[in-house]
């Protein structure tokens, strides 16, 4: 039995992105606040020159530490357990100690009076302050990282559950359409089965946590509309007004439930049928996709809102809080508007 089997390697705790501006900002703020508190402490002579030098020194250290942590993060992240955070703490203390010792040596040789007379005390105090502040700051980063991991896991599980509800719903409704055509038009039913096989290969044969494109989603919608057109005939009319790039990233099976609801609750209950409109356009700050249908006086099958709620939650998960899904009745038509912010990057499973 190998050593890895006897003693499985403990997964490492995730480190924050030290290459980001928020981390540099946090180090700058912590350093400036520490110097300010020491300057305001009782017994301090309140020399503005010493305060300015100390702020400049801590700011330079913050930039130096950010660069070092950014470059060494991949190596430290490979360490097991909590050792990545221990390595970061050691790097903080040793870097500050070496910088303080270098500054003290240069200052005493130049006799500039920038550092305290006791070089040893200056280095010791800098390392102690860095050790205490670094431990507190790393504890904060660790708690935030663990919280983000839990939130991501919960969100991923929620999306998987939503997708699991969408798949059977889509399958059952499509098979009902085929069953309705078997006695009326066997040839059309056969073509529909072939169309369904391609449809389910595209919809179910890929990783649903990944993203597709708007062009792929429209192709999926077109296959579904072909199936429904065989069942509803001239009662179903489709209008398109789409001016959005086909390579726009989009979660799979996002628009199909909206089109399905438009047909089921808007067109199907009307004896004369109706038209659904599929639109897409650029708007200030993002992209807007619209699905609208006529409003029936008495829907044949009252809905429970699951489809629309699922779309809302999936859009929020992939594109953030700025993305919205609005539904309203306008001039006798039910309109669903999906807004995707242009600056947002769709989230994918990176693990």
Architecture overview:
- This protein is of the alpha+beta class and 351 residues long.
- Helix content is 60%, strand content 14%.
- The chain has 9 helices and 7 strands.
- Strands 2-4-5-7-6 form a 5-stranded mixed β-sheet.
- The protein starts with a helix and ends in a 10-residue tail after the last strand.
Give the helix/strand layout.
Layout: H1 3-6, H2 21-40, H3 48-77, H4 83-110, H5 119-182, H6 186-204, E1 211-213, H7 214-232, E2 236-242, E3 249-251, H8 256-267, E4 274-283, E5 286-294, H9 306-319, E6 324-330, E7 333-341
Parallel strand pairs: 2-4
Antiparallel strand pairs: 1-3, 4-5, 5-7, 6-7
Helix pairs in contact: 2-3, 3-4, 4-5, 5-6, 5-7, 5-9, 6-7, 7-8
List keywords for this structure.
single chain; 351 residues; five-stranded mixed sheet; 60% helix
Q: Give helix and strand order, one letter per element, not per position.
A: HHHHHHEHEEHEEHEE
CA radius of gyration is: 31 Å
Query: How is the main sheet built?
Result: 5 strands, mixed
Overall structural class, as computed from helix and strand content, comes to alpha+beta
Number of strands: 7
Number of contiguous helices: 9
Q: Residue ranges: pLDDT <50 for 5 or more in a row?
A: 1-8
Report, as a whole number of angstroms, the end-to-end distance: 28 Å
Mean pLDDT: 77
β-sheet strand percentage:
5-15%
Shape: elongated
Q: Report strand order across the widest sheet.
A: 2-4-5-7-6
Helix content: 55-70%
Brief synopsis:
With 351 residues, this protein is α+β, with helices and mostly antiparallel strands.
């Amino acid at each position: 039995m190998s050593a890895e089997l006897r003693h499985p390697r403990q997964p490492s705790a995730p480190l924050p992105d030290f290459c980001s501006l928020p981390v540099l900002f946090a180090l700058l703020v912590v350093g400036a606040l520490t110097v300010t508190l020491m300057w305001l402490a009782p017994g301090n002579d309140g020399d503005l020159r010493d305060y300015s030098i100390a702020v400049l020194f801590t700011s330079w250290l913050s930039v130096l530490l950010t660069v070092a942590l950014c470059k060494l993060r991949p190596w430290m992240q490979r360490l097991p357990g909590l050792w990545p955070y221990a390595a970061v703490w050691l790097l903080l203390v040793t870097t500050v100690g070496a910088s303080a010792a270098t500054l003290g040596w240069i200052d005493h040789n130049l006799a500039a009076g920038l550092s305290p007379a006791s070089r040893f005390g200056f280095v010791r105090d800098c390392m102690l302050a860095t050790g205490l502040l670094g431990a507190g700051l790393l504890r904060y980063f660790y708690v935030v990282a663990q919280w983000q991991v839990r939130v991501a896991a919960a969100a991923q599980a929620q999306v998987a559950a939503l997708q699991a509800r969408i798949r059977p719903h889509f399958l059952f409704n499509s098979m009902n359409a085929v069953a309705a055509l078997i006695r009326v038009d066997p040839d059309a039913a056969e073509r529909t089965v072939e169309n369904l096989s391609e449809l389910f290969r595209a919809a179910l044969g890929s990783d649903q946590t990944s993203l597709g494109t708007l062009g792929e989603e429209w192709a999926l919608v077109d296959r579904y509309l072909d199936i429904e057109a065989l069942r509803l005939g001239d009662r179903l009319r489709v209008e398109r007004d789409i001016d959005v790039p086909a390579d726009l990233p989009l979660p799979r099976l996002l628009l199909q439930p909206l089109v399905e609801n438009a047909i089921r609750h808007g067109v199907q209950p009307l004896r004369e049928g109706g038209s659904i409109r599929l639109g897409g356009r650029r708007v200030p700050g993002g992209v807007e996709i619209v699905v609208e249908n006529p409003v029936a006086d008495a829907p044949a099958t009252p809905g429970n809102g699951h489809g629309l709620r699922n779309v809302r939650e999936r859009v929020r998960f992939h594109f953030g809080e700025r993305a919205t899904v609005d539904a309203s009745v306008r001039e006798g038509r039910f309109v669903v508007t999906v807004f995707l912010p242009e600056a947002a990057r769709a989230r994918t499973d990176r693990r």
